[in-house]
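Two entries, shown back to back:
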Amino acid sequence: MDTVRSRRPGQRVASENFALSYLRYLAFPGAQDPDFQLSDLKFTATEFWKTVQSSAYMSALDPDLSEFRSSGGKLVLWHGWNDQHIAPSSTLAYYDAMREAMGPRTVESFTKLYLFPGVAHCGGGEGPNTFDILSPVMAWAENGQAPARVVASAGTRTRPLYPYPTVARYDGSGSTDDAANFVPHKPAAAAERYHWVGERLYSSDYQTWAHAEGTALLQRPSSTWLTRKVSQ
């Protein structure tokens, strides 16, 4: 895995490169700073809102997918629990926002979420990380067959995955490396939703259309609650 412990002197880990590329060239609309360093970033609420201004036209965080659903669209989300670059809690937060905006039953009618234990960023990791998530969503969109059990593997180990919040539970017999020995289990209560400074970004009321005129980046509308966070 890509951790601080694996970094050699003078070498950046991938997470640092991701963050620096964003902060230098994408975070601040109409402004670039090739010399920006992580040490320049202040961990305050004010600084946070400055760094997410481009979310208005770059981030796919609108939880109201009513038009997509009405057109027959099907959505399968997945995330590895050991993702070292993007917290899986961000995908959970988006899924929760969808359920709040559209209603749980509506969301479950066209969206499934899978969380893979031990899987790192986009694959790899210590858990079973070889799986096919494309065929299930194609079968759902083309034939109306909703995804259920997905089997992931790593060498001779296989493990079933079920749509969130259902988890795989060992049935007490046979090898724990065999997916056949696990059954679906739905926890009695879902995890309590947490609150953080940027949770309003998972909403539908600040997105803009952006276009360039010369070297200027113009947005329509020019003022939203997000832009006002840094102009107050």
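entry 2 starts here
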Amino acid sequence: MNRMLVSLLLLVSVTVHAENVLHVKAGETHELADAQSVIAYDKLILEDGAVLMIPNGLEQVQLDAAWAEIGQGVTIMAKGPDGSDGAKGKDAQGQAEECKDGVRGGDAGHGGQGQEGTSITMTLGLAKLGSLVVNSRGGVGGSGGAGGTGQQGGSFDKCNAPAGGDGGAGGDGGDGGNGGQISIVYRLLSGNTVAGPVNNLITIQNGGGKGGDAGAAGAGGAGTEGKYINMRTLTGNRKWMAGGQAGQPGSAGKPGRDGVKGQALIQQDLRDRMDAMIQTQSAQVAALKDQLVTRLAEEKRQVEAAAAQAISALELQVTALKTNMEGTANQSSVDESITSMQQTLQQQSARIDELSAKLEQAMQVMDARMDTLADEVKGLNKRFDELPSTETSQ
């Protein structure tokens, strides 16, 4: 008993954790079940030339795949069914009774309306993409039927010749179905083999269906042919009686209206794009930091070099002053040396102040730019964290 219970639990566990995978082999066609309007796969594999059929009757389908491998020449077929052609009007057979006009031909049936293409919303994690066609065109409207032919007028002898029956009206063409609305949101999985921009690899065909052709007018029935009749007189003369007129043709049908093209959207998942933006901003921050560090190092080197130059110049002037004081009692030479030393000191001090100001300004610019970029990255991270897992931009 215990073994049976353990086996049952293991079977349930395997069933619950089994991957939901749809794998359509190369060149094969797979049709989804009628009840599947929302479908989610762990893996969706469509090999080269595979066709995934969306059954007729579904107005909208949501197809999600966490991992999608799509080969070359793959098709998702969700085209609306074409409308049926209208029935032909019934011909009025034979000839009417004596002295009676022919019966009118029957009116034709109208063409059926083409159905709308199925609207599809897809969310795909792309591991591989060759080329994909999504066909959600509207169905073609059915042609109107041709009107029936009118009946031939009846024979005559003691009456005027009867006319032929009018032709029946042609049927109107059915309207074309509207194209489906297509939305494809994708994520590029790590290590994907998508060769090129996704928008260039997916073709969406969701034009409206063509309206059905108008049905032709039914031909009028033939009138009774003219003939000679014997006059009921003593002389028995013959008299020509003109034949009856042919019936009028029926009215032609009207062509159906073309369906409206659906909307289409192919875009990368917003969370992926936000992540790419954050990475770009972070790279810009790092590059700016390196640039400013290099600049500051150069400014510091210039300040240190100027200070060293000033100290060296002062040392030389001090040495010259000592020599003048030891070798001569000329007060004017000593005064000139002191004045020159003071001027040099002032010049070097001004140079050092100038370089220090530049260094301070560069540091302020770097701090401001770093703060701005940090705020931008923080804002992107906040928006990223607030996004629900299925949010996409429209």
